[in-house]
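Posting for a labmate who doesn't have an account.
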Amino acid sequence: MARLRFSRSIRLYFNSIDVPLFFAVLAISIVGLINMYGIANGTGPLFVRQAVFVLVSFAIMTLLSFFNYRYLKNHSLPVLFLYIFSLILLGLTFYSRSIRGTNSWLIFGDLTFEPAELTKLFLIILMAKYFSQKHVHIYQFRHIVASGLYFIIPALLIINQPDLGSTIVLGLIWASLLLAAGINKKHILTLLLIVSVIAVGSWSFVLEPYQKSRVTSFLDQDSDPLGSGYNLIQSKVAIGSGFWFGNGLGDGSQVNLGFLPEPHNDFIFAAFIEQFGFIGGIALLGMVLLLVSRIISIGVSAGTNFGKLFSIGMAVFIFSHVFISVGVNVGLLPVTGLPFPFLSSGGSNLVSIMAGLGISQSIKRYG
């Protein structure tokens, strides 16, 4: 009898959520663990820790799928609390120990947490809430300014950590939701002009020397092959060595011999291609596109503007990380240090994305 009730509960659960999205997440999570197993040379601490992160984040996604997202849509106080909480966490990073020259993490013993990842999710929630309320009046420039302030405050904290990659993703999320909400075309030109001025000013007064070096080495990757251009060159070598079908699980020479820097984080896509080849890379990106398309599909069928806008924000969150990470690994973009969702080690990005996917499933469930 108990088994029958359990079976019925499982069936009812899958009838209420987006099943393709659930299994796309499951598949890419398993692929990520297999890839990490090969990079970590078996069941080492790196693999075990990542397996724990996957299990915890999957549980968070499942639990949040039961949470009625309309609570966030209808109540401003909890949304504002999440936003302010993320700002407090970002502020605390400046009092934490620096790792590789940046103050992006909060450190708890052997564990680290990157608040910028959670900030991306909370900004999506806040912007979806704001624009769904102001949708009719979005043509008024004051609403663009107000939403811009919500974006600029965390962006300034993140760029000063310094973390250029997360700042760019935060900007893409804000810009995409602005466009989705129906911004006036004249205002788009004004914003582009403002962004251009900020970009020029940032190069002169904000970016650190090592960040400028990443850009210049990207533009001329062969100018300093043993210095600033080393990472990109080794990444392309690893990708090339994988050829069509890869060298096999755990048999990537660039990883095993220590030539590929940060194979479990910044250059994990190159490590993946080295193991599973071009065909494996296409399959991986296909799973990502399926996942993103299901999020957009949920948004299209959502019964509220909040649900539609949140879905767009989540799609941009995931896709921008993948696009930038792949672009960096193949040498088409400067090194930014962004994680590849579901593949890179660590739990900050994974938990934040899985929490967002849980809300996406809630939108599917409650309409």
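Reply:
Got it, the structure tokens are right above this. The chain has 15 helices and two strands.
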